[in-house]
Amino acid sequence: MKISSLLLLAATGAEAHYRFSKLIVDGVEEPREWMAVRQTKNYQTNHGVTDVNSPDIRCFQNKPGTTTAQVTAGIKLGFAALSAVTHFGPVSFYMARVPEGRDINTWDGSGNVWFKVGEISAPSSGVLGSSEATWPAYNKKSVEFTVPKNVPNGKYLVRVESIALHQAQSAGGAQIYLSCAQVEITGGGNGNPGPLVSFPGAYNRNDPGLLWSYYPVRTSYKAPGPAIWSS
Fold first, then answer.
1. Which CATH architecture has domain 3-210?
2. What stretches of 32-179 show up as alpha helix (H) in DSSP?
3. Above 60 in pLDDT, residue 8?
């Protein structure tokens, strides 16, 4: 692809932002926004987070939660992307167990409590960046992962994160679209989730996974953050 075409790719869709505002439990989407999903600060503008050192990188929260979805371990859990994931890049999923005695509606998820449970990352083959459409999550109206069967029962925050790389040619250019949902896991196991990380703290603004090169064209990519818990 010519450089001019790559630059055009970077420019197109620059304003096509999105938000994750509905949970999808075993294929059933919530009827309204901001039910189990905590309302985010982009509920009107759909803008992303660019500062990985800001507390906004945790849940981008505007309002505390009010409801908790009932989720059985081993099922598919997803988020609706309104209107769609309109930028290329990886999508990651994290979970954090609410400590005993804490209210899931107000617990903020601070500290080393988050573990990665799923990821939709770079194309499995082909030249990276040759087309936005080569990225598996691009233009999807929903994204999902499988809740580990061995995750212990309890209440959790589930965090979805889409890293848009179209303007990430320098540090701070990546746009991160994220939100957190409140769930209660049943039918789980006795796993020991990890490694545990914190938000902020898990990412550095200079992480290779938060940077993108249109020219020379990238031939490999790894999303930032810890390894996915193998459960």
1. Distorted Sandwich (2.70)
2. 56-59
3. no
